[in-house]
């Protein structure tokens, strides 16, 4: 069999589900050199919901025949709905959730309630993103404007047997249009509110009889919709552009080669986080001359002492070669990419100059995939592949105290009265004004080298007509080597308040200066005077006799034990065998059923944050973090313990996924439907929780989600296509005893709506036989009311943090609409509105940075609207 060009671009469009919107039936079949043909084909796709050819099992099938769970959105729908990046894709893919956090580089993708990876460079997402068959390992490399898209496929559930890389929760596969041997292209200009200007263009055509090219570019600029009152500026803007060039070699012979090179740049003031609960520290912000907008998130007003900087460069290239060897097809995809991300944030989110953060990240990634697929006439067919991944991550980051930091923390220590820090400095022998002094307070350098390979494949067997039995496997071997370094400059953070008293008391008893009291002196004193030592230790750990203990909340940036060290090697080594078993049966010519059991895997992730801590089995701290009173442990016994060292994790172990799924697909005149029922479990789900200064990375024992996905396409009359997609999720922490909030076992995970709806209506009015058409589209997206986060860590107890978190919930009701006049000569005029009703909600909440009891949150985007002029030639 000879694969068509459109099929070759889909060779990595793996398996995962059944739901698909009306747009999923669209197939790019029009001649781009003929505007009339292009317009007529676009109208036909929307009117009739024509079939789409995919290779969800790496072989050519219609979407309706494919026994997998995959929702597909065509490039035509992306244009009509004004969807420009993956963040907006969720409004047409109900099992997908996308949220953007503190910067343009931090976006989280979640499928069926599973997903993570944003804001921590050591975590690969549980949802893998592939663009033209190339794995994009970090969200910062995935969110640029989508140009020249043929289709976007959202594949649900583990994908290991058809994708070589981590994909324990699902896959988003973006397939772009490849070069054509007929000259054509398009140009478009969009203008919208907030002075949005979007320019796009693409051109394609032949260079020789066997070599075609394409070139596309986009520019997207928009004013921010959040006013920074004191700086007379606006943030949450858009300022990004991208260019991409492609070459396609095809001469009718067995070899076909596609080469792609691209570059994108983001330079934006993003992102706004507002106050949703004003804690006890807020009056202190005002006391140092700062201002905030308390508990009014949707006013779109804020105060900052500096504007947020977000600069992202993303570039690389890939070569895909397909060689036909009779009934076999050999495919190779080689890619190299670089990603650079620089962000600087005012993390106290006020006009007071208290704390800011700088983060500079670099990712260099090489991937190689080779696979061979058969197309035999007999009952057996197979696919066998190998995947190699090599990535280097380098992060330099740090926190800086501003000119108001000293006074703010002095007031915090003294209950609103200044002078406490000066007293402490005198008592502990510090330089005057050294605690929380203006300047760097932490400096960090993290690296991660990740090398992995996998072997994967599937075998199909058709014992009788209509029945296909499939078995698939994946063996993955993954190794990571990492280094963690941090310096904490604040003198108070570098002293344990229990140990300081013990050293001082021993020095006084021996009549020597405290600087002369070392570990040997302490051990000798304890052995010679056990009763006296016991009395000193009791007094040092009693808040009534050691008032310094009240200052411990100010030691939130303690010294850091670097990795690797004599106890912690700074590496992970994982391997796993995953598999898929599936039976698919054609009940009738119009009704198909399947049942699937699949497992999946994602390797260990590393906590590249300032809250990385040794595992409890490596270190046990003493009371109030004391090193002197700490019991025996490998780190203490090796003499590695630093003041105020606590425990946590350096990395989280692998995720192992398991899913049972039953699906039914029907295709009848005027009606198509899909139903999938599933029970999906992730053992060792990698939970990444913000703690107020860094991240706590830990494995949940087990998290499961049961539910169903149903969608239908109804065409009651020729011009009208109606779609309805419904997802129901019932998630549960089956076991999570060691979360940062305590034991969450048996609880429902927050942030996962029970019900999600995506529905649309598209009406196409043709003006006789002229080839002109008026196309109207209305879509509605709904997420049922759900708690936003499991809990907050900035409160006195876990119970209080979880109780406060229950106050914050989210419900989404978003309406989008567009109207397009498509003329036969290639001109299109469109008007659009997104979030028509201006529905506002919080996307996420988190603890205020170094402000216990304060809660901040991210709002969604308000209503946007505008018009587009597009010409296709």
How would you describe what is shown here?
There is one protein chain. Helices cover 11% and strands 47% of the residues. By secondary structure, it is mostly beta strands. The strands form 8 sheets. It has a 22-stranded antiparallel barrel. Helix 7 packs antiparallel against helix 9 and helix 8 crosses helix 9. The longest helix has 14 residues, at 35-48. The two termini are 33 Å apart. The model is unreliable at 1-49 (pLDDT under 50). InterPro entries: Beta-barrel_TonB (IPR000531), Beta-barrel_TonB_sf (IPR036942), Plug_dom (IPR012910), TonB-dep_rcpt-like (IPR039426).
The first-level CATH class name of the domain at 5-176 = Mainly Beta
* Proportion of beta-strand residues: over 45%
Biggest sheet record: 22 strands, antiparallel, barrel
Principal-axes shape call? globular
Supply the number of helical segments.
Answer: 11
- Average pLDDT confidence is 87
CATH homolog superfamily of the domain at 5-176 = TonB-dependent receptor, plug domain
> What fold name stands as the CATH topology of the domain at 5-176?
Ferric Hydroxamate Uptake Protein, Chain A, domain 1
The rounded distance between the terminal residues' Cα atoms is 33 Å
Low-confidence segments, ≥5 residues, pLDDT <50? 1-49
Q: What percent of residues adopt helix (DSSP H or I)?
A: 10-25%
Domain TonB-dependent receptor-like beta-barrel: 297-836
InterPro entries: Beta-barrel_TonB, Beta-barrel_TonB_sf, Plug_dom, TonB-dep_rcpt-like
Protein name: TonB-dependent receptor
Membrane topology: Multi-pass membrane protein
